[in-house]
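User: Please predict the structure of the protein below. I'd like the answer in structure-token form so I can feed it into my own downstream comparison script.

Assistant: Understood. Taking the following sequence of 580 residues as input:
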Amino acid sequence: MSRLTYDSNSFYLDGKPFRLISGAIHYFRVVPDYWEDRLRKLRACGFNAVETYTCWNLHERREGEFDFSGGLDIARFVRTAQELGLYVILRPGPYICAELEFGGLPSWLLTYQKMHLRCVDETFLSKVSRYYKRLFDELRPYFAENGGNILMVQVENEYGSYGNDKEYLRAIAQIYRDNGVNELYFTSDGTDGLMLGGGSLPEYLETANFGSRSRENFAALRAFRPNQPLMCTEFWNGWFDHWYDAHHVRESDDTAATLDEMLTDGASVNLYMFHGGTNFGFTNGANYVDGIQPTVTSYDYDCPVSECGDLTPKYYAIKEIVEKHFGKAPDLPVANLPKKAYGPVALTAAAPLFDNLPEPVCCAHTMTMEELGQDFGFVLYETTVKGPCQDAEIVIEGLHDRAILYVNGEKAGVKERTGKRDDPVRLTLADGEEASLSLLVENLGRINYGPKLRDEKGILRGVKAGYQFQFGWKMYSLPCDDLSALRYAPLSGDCCPAFLRGTFTVGEKADTFVRLDGFTKGNVYINGFNLGRYWNAPGPQKTLYLPAPLLREGENEIVVLELEGFEKPEILLTDVQDLG
């Protein structure tokens, strides 16, 4: 039975009046050695709870194979919160949005062509049930009824923004009960009537998500559900960034004033986000408005605690408001972590991508990334175009998401689903003449929100020369998550796409930032760990955050996967972050 209950005006914890002041921190966006630091800063700001989603797509990257180790050890994260005196609001989805790849759903779901997502589809629910059984086995000791600190569990996530299948919501709740989860269930949606109506269940608490106009939004929630206390599950105190866009900021006094208004009106609040962290590797999601809008690597979100853990002016403005309403915050030691400029690092060795290919899959037609059993990274498609053809344009039908095109091994152009780039590539071949055509296709991040959620990657329908589809393809899966088999040679000229390797020595470990001026697009790896994407596209993020726990005392290896070209084989490790 849940220790947290409510009536029409208030929450009660063990029968005593209680209000939640919570902040979102996602364990999967923070290196585990820093979980305690970030959670301590939350507690020291006067908060009594932390909210986190769970990431099905990372816990079960391949169907039936689960991972709860290292940075995915959610039990350790929850236990650390408990040791600091923080309750937990758990949001296990299965869909979470979170600007995470595919909204946290695993890509292998897309191989079930007839399966419908996020509704009463027995196949989908069977996959969800298997995941939840494994997840809740990890978390069972930490539910409040078992003496733990998990007080609330969300049913789905902002479901009214997507659908209205109430039996599906009840099926998710039933899976919770079947796994012994008996804490307070709740739903959360925007305050539009369609969203509230579609995403809620009368038997469970409904909460609201918004960033401003709190009284107007709470009035809408109260009109819809008059017999419950007010709670904002996502108070958007910042925002996320897309490539080709500007960095988002929200002034501290504006954030503090809105929080003060909500607390004055007696509401419980969860800040989304308190500390955003990083979309490591290929885990960023994307939106879609007239083209795909991939989210950048940084999930700084203009938070009270920055991506690198710094206490910002917003932190102190929020702490003042929290102490005004809840009393003095716990006296815990918190400080910004040291930063260090390790200086320039020369990249002296190269492993050209096309010289390090795996065995291909051969097929008459192009296959999607999912059909190839791959979640993240790239697929290289290769075929031979045979003449005669006269000024035939190369057209990719269903490009998801970005392709670098090569004709006879020479780069010929770039095409993007963003709508920002569509270089014309044409072929003229005489009778009997042939040309090799290669397309290096990148998954820029599966869509995480909205009606285009079912977002397969690679080439969905085929490639044409003029009006003629080309058949006879070799396809190379390039997830780029294990670099141990790469064959390096001394770097000589621009051999991109290529992995470029350098080393540097660390005495005392400290946070640093990777700056790649003169490079074009790719990913950075430190000691084998994929930090994330960089891109010289207009807009935000000019550095990648490199947390100190990923470094070693002594020699460190840094690898840059540069896709298109660079000016000088040298990067900079600086102590200054630049998010644009």
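That's the full token string. The mean pLDDT is 98.
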